Structures are given as structure tokens and as C-alpha cells.
Amino acid sequence: MTRKSRRLWLVVACMIGLGSAAALTLNAFSSNIVFFMAPSQVHSKPPPADRTIRLGGMVVAGSVHQEKVKDAPVAIFDVTDGQAAVTVRYEGILPDLFREGQSVVAVGTVNPDGTFRASEVLAKHDETYMPKEVAEELRRSGKWDPRFGKAPDAASWNTMTAADAPKKPATQTP
Amino acid sequence: MTHLPYIVAAYGLTLGVAAILSVNATLRLRQARRRLAAIEQPRTRQPS
Amino acid sequence: MGEDRNFLTVFIAGTGAPGTDGSTLNATQSLTARTGNLFHRYANPGRFLRMGAKLQPWLTWPALVLSLAGIVWGLFFSPADWQQGDSVRIMYVHVPTAWLASSGYMGLAVCSLLSLVWRHPLADLAAVEIGPVGASITAVCLATGSLWGKPMWGTWWVWDARLTSVLVLFFLYLGHIALIRAFDEPQRGYRAAAILGLAGAVDLPIIKFSVQWWNTLHQPDSITVTGAPTMSTSMLWPLGLTTLGFTLGFAAIVLARLRASVMESRVRTILAANRGRQSAAAAPQPDRATP
């Protein structure tokens, strides 16, 4: 072995060691790295009432009630991960992106009755980027309702551009 | 629902940093080239 | 370390590649020797400067044209997103800087490997120059991400896995910048910084996969190697242009700095040699004058 190949193997060995150490550490702390809990996790393992947690999930369509209590806006809505739902009560102004079917992360505590009291609501947009016109077209043609889940495969709407979308509304049937 | 200030700030910041990096690199390269040329010219004429 | 000094004197004198290691005994040895020779062909500063000067315009001008075209397209001609509206346009500068933050560090790690294993002198100089550029780009990535997060998520910053791992990358860059300049004897700084550069590469897969391994506020990647992009082509085009343009621009800036750095080290060497000739004592040239 020359000095060069010895150094190469030394570097490779060090990187393998460091990599596995990092992987084990991250694996061990996995539950702490997770940014939010899903409603089903909250149901199966309710955290203590004094502990602030983040609850993440989709806003259930038709569950949003907004009212005003002494001039302060209050929003009550259900957050679901498909298996369980948690009712969230939030006093404050909701982010622009908040809507039914949107993913949100609520920061707050779980009440003894199982509802969630949020001090902050963050909107979590997904990785789908789509022109407004295409989204409206998909909605109008009945291909997709943003309140009930993710947008269809990009390949199906990639060909639809802003220019030709309004021209062929009738032909777009599922 | 336009957030113009955020968009302008993001683009301005990106272009500003890119401009600083480019101008800095250009000036540094120019100065180094000038110095090297000034120093190499007399040396190559030496008979050694 | 006679070997190292040999490389350095070769580098300074600019008289060609160093000699090969004689007979080949095993596969690794021949591999390292062969790759070593390949790399060292470009260690000759004269040849590097000639090639760099030729390469520079091919990086600079396409970078300018593509970046500007992508920015204009993204700002004025690409459609607004159905849920984010015009704020989606921040993507056209945020995503390229995020990609460059990671790939710039990848370049730093490769330089570190070349430096540690093959003692490549040009790799050390490249590592010195990549550091500040990469750190600036990472700062831009974090800042534009914040400017995007405030209107869309409703917060400037959250401690989720993606954002935190990119912040760690920024600190790795800063640490590398400080470490490589921390020693009076440059060689020791290069060695220490190369170790940090390689060790820090562990952060790169964490950044990449953080959005898949853990729940994060940051959305998963829209463009993946395996799947179709979840993005309309009318947005994909300007994004591709800015990404390509910024990448070429990064390369152009690093190349320009590296050329300047090689020239500066040559100036220093010549000055030191002149001083040495002038002084009557004719003391051996100190190592400090080497790049």
C-alpha cells in the first residue's frame, strides 16, 4: 500500500464511521426531530395537558367555523390525518393559505376533553405547483376538488396552459 | 393576495449578493493579473 | 513529509506533473496513482491559468444570459400559483440557491478529499475560494426561504428538520472559512479544514432526505430523480433556467477567484525568490511563501 491508498482507505473508514454515528443518533432522536404529531398519534398517546405540541394534518372540509368573540376572530376546525380527527380552537388571524383541505400545523396544548387549543396556526403547502387557471379548470371540470386531497398527477394537467384552459371547458369530463 | 414586498426583497437580495460576489471576483482577478504581469515581465528578460 | 514538499515545489516551479510511483502492486494503488496523475496534470499553475482563461467566458456569459432570462420569465411571464399566488415567484431564486448551497458544499467535500488523499495543491486553493461563495449563497437561500415562509406559512422561521439542517450547513461553511485561515502555516489550515469539509458532508444527505424522513413544515421536493415533477411546465422552465444560470454563475465566480488566487500565489513566490536572491545570506526559502 502506498501512502496515498492508505490515506484513501483511512478517509473512507472515517466517513463510514461518522456516517453511521450520525445515522444512529438521528434514528435515536427521531421522535424529537419530527416537527409535528398527527391526530392519530395524539389520540393513541395523548400528551400531558401542560405540554406544548404541534399538531399537523389536513383541515376537514366543511368543519371550519369562524366567529367573533369580543372583536377577536375565533376559528374552530377539525384536523385529520385520515385515521383520526382533532378539533382545534384558535383565537387569532389565520394565515392566507388556510382553507378547507389545506395542510396546517397548529401549535398549542391538548385539553382534557381531547380538543386542541392552538396559540399559533401555520399553513403547510404541498409540493404541487400549478397555475391558477389550471386549478380552476380542474375544479370546474370536476377532475379535482382541492378540499378533498391532493391534486392529480402533473402529467394530466401539464398540457393545459393558461391560454387554452378556458377554451375547452365542456370536453373535460372525467 | 399579492405579497409584493417579500418578492421584491427576495429578488433584490439575491441579485445584490450575486452582484457583490461577481464584482469582487472581477476586481480581484484584474488586480492579480496586473501584478503578475508587472512582476513577470522584467524577470523573463533576465538572462539567467 | 518529503512527498508533500515535492508536490509543492512542483506546483511553484510549474515544471509539470510529479513522477509516478513506479510499479503497481494492487488495484487501489494503481487507482490512486492513476487518478492522482490525472488530477496533477491540472496542478501545473501555468496550464491551469491557460485553461481557466479559456473556460471563463464559457461560464460567465451563459450564466448571465440564462439567469436574467429565467428571472424575467419567472417574475413577469410565469403564471401565479393556484394557492400561493404571486409569492410562488420567490421559488425561482430560492430553489437554485438551495441547490447551490448543497452542491457547493459537495464541491468543497470533493476538494477536501483531493487534498487529504492526493495532497492536491489546487484543491486546497479551490476549497479556500469555494467557502465564502458557498456561505453567501447559503445565507441567500435561508433569507429567501424566510421571505417566502412569512407570507405563506405564517412564520419567518421554524425549527423543522429541513430548515435546521440547512442552518447547520451554513455554520459548516463559516467554520470552514475560519479554520482554513486560522493557521500561520497554510498547510495545517488546509489539512484541518479538509477534515471538517469531509465530516460536514454528512449533513448533505440529511438535508436532502429530511423532508421524507421526518414530518417537516417544509414541503417535499417537487422535482425528484424517480418521479415526474409535481409542477406545471410553465413554472418548470423558468426554474430550470435560473437553476442552470446560477450554477454556471457559481462556477464562474469560483473559477475567477481561483485564477486570481493562483496568480497571487505566483506573485508571492516570485517576490520571495527575488528577495532570496538579493539577500546575501541566501537562506533557504521559507515554506510560508508557498500558496
TrEMBL record, chain A:
GO terms for cellular component: plasma membrane. GO terms for molecular function: heme binding; metal ion binding. One of its GO terms (biological process) is cytochrome complex assembly. It is found in: Cell membrane; Membrane. The keyword Transferase does not apply. Heme chaperone required for the biogenesis of c-type cytochromes. Transiently binds heme delivered by CcmC and transfers the heme to apo-cytochromes in a process facilitated by CcmF and CcmH. Belongs to the CcmE/CycJ family. This is Cytochrome c-type biogenesis protein CcmE. It comes from Komagataeibacter nataicola.
Automatic annotation (TrEMBL), chain B:
Keywords: Cell inner membrane, Cell membrane, Cytochrome c-type biogenesis, Membrane, Transmembrane, Transmembrane helix, Transport. It is found in: Cell inner membrane. One of its GO terms (cellular component) is plasma membrane. Pfam families: CcmD (PF04995). InterPro entries: Haem_export_protD_CcmD. It is a single-pass membrane protein. Its main location: membrane. It comes from the Bacteria. GO terms for biological process: cytochrome complex assembly; heme transport. Signal peptide: none annotated. The chain crosses the membrane at residues 6-27. Belongs to the CcmD/CycX/HelD family. Required for the export of heme to the periplasm for the biogenesis of c-type cytochromes. This is Heme exporter protein D. It comes from Komagataeibacter nataicola.
